[in-house]
Design brief:
The chain is an alpha+beta fold. The chain is built from two helices and twelve strands; from the N terminus they run H-E-E-E-E-E-E-E-E-E-E-E-E-H. Strand 1 and strand 2 form a beta hairpin. Helix 1 packs antiparallel against helix 2.
């Protein structure tokens, strides 16, 4: 009479909990802090410290977490971002106090880059959009690239950096904002791989049990 080795069907490690955890983590609406990267590209002139630049490519790269976004109904802000500024021909410098906001007000609906002042409050130094209508995105989701013309309040608007004040001269051109969340696809593939290993293990165990 054939005996089935039932003990060999028990996995040596918790495959099912791992599979469920991976599947839940792969959901885009998982309730946890998710890294997000905001990028603004464009062209412009200005000064960085004592160095003058003219008609160069400009890129702001801001990184943070989605759970640091506050506000709702088309008016949101993320103060807890770290920023880098890259200027063609000059290189990259760290921005020491910036925030990103999205607003639907007449002040300048769209994505706004702010310089933070004492106490993490918003200063008047900002680069904002000329479009006064709400956008179909928020600061917790991937979006873009969103292109628009931009304004700088005046040549007195400055942003602090490790290499001195960054002073953009208006207007800036070819402005595009985008935001990127990490793709859940990698986690989903991992979950499928775990499921495949579990299925293969059970199949092999059943075949071995049938031969005993």
């Amino acid at each position: 009479m054939r005996r089935t080795n039932t003990s060999s069907l028990k996995p040596g490690f918790p495959l099912i909990p791992m599979l469920l955890t991976a599947l839940l983590a792969a959901r885009p609406d998982a309730a946890s802090a998710v890294p997000i990267t905001y990028t603004m590209t464009g062209t412009g002139s200005g000064t960085l410290g004592a160095t003058l630049f003219s008609h160069q490519a400009i890129t702001f790269t801001l990184t943070g977490d989605t759970d640091d976004v506050s506000g709702s109904d088309g008016n949101e802000i993320n103060r807890a971002v770290t920023g880098q500024l890259t200027i063609g021909g000059l290189g990259t410098t760290r921005l020491t106090s910036v925030a990103i906001a999205m607003t639907a007000t007449d002040f300048g609906g769209g994505v706004i880059l702010y310089e933070l002042t004492i106490g993490d409050t918003l200063g008047y130094n900002a680069i904002w959009s000329d479009q006064f209508s709400p956008f179909p995105f928020d600061l917790r989701q991937s979006f873009g690239p969103v292109t628009y013309s931009s304004r700088v309040g005046s040549t007195s608007d400055v942003f602090n950096s490790d290499d001195g004040y960054f002073v953009p001269y208006p207007p800036l051109g070819n402005i595009a904002w985008s935001a990127i969340l990490p793709e859940p696809g990698g986690l989903a593939v991992f979950a499928v791989g775990i499921a495949g290993l579990l299925w293969t293990r059970k199949t092999r165990c059943r075949r071995r049990g049938g031969l005993d």
